[in-house]
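Dear colleagues,

As part of the handover before I leave the project, I'm documenting each prediction I ran so the next person doesn't have to rerun anything. This entry is a single chain, and its sequence is reproduced below.
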Amino acid sequence: MKIRYNAPVTLTFALASTVILAISQVIPDFMSNFVVPGSTYPFNFFSLDLLRLISYTIGHGSWEHLIGNMSFMLLIGPVLEEKYGSVRIFIMMVITAVASGLFNVFFLPDPSLGASGIVFMLILLISITNVRKGEIPLTLIAVIAVFVTKEIFSMLFEKNNINEIAHLLGGLFGGFFGFLFAHEKKQKETTPEKPAGTNVSYTNT
């Protein structure tokens, strides 16, 4: 029996995040390379600062922060990679990271780091798994109710170092991707197969 690298995107992301945090324990300023700045900080779009729009997701402020995010990612990520494919999950993660990073650069005053936005994207995405046309999964309603209520409450009434906006944006993208690819899957299921030995072609309308 051999060990299989079954979820390359999830496992590589978790490994990179762990290595980055471990190095930062030895080199204190190292983590500053994995932070996306806020609106009150300079950001040069024509420099290596652009990499921060993605690299901030593998930076974490503490082992507790890292373990919290990776616990969810390692549970959910492999399932989603199996369903959607590693390339597609990677693209979803990049889009979510860049969009949340840009929002932070333009609209939020403080720097941010961590994979929480991506984790919440995956949580919403998996809650829409196997959605059917004309139906809304009860699990999706439950996740949104708990998730949105908690984040809004924390944003309004708690003083912490958590970027709730990144969580909400991640969840928004997760819901969008879930319904987008559920529709695509439905189209594939309803497209008739071409009979063997004929030249008949079909067009989706």
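The chain has one domain: 8-188. Residues 82 and 164 are 29 Å apart (CA to CA).

All the best with the project,
I.
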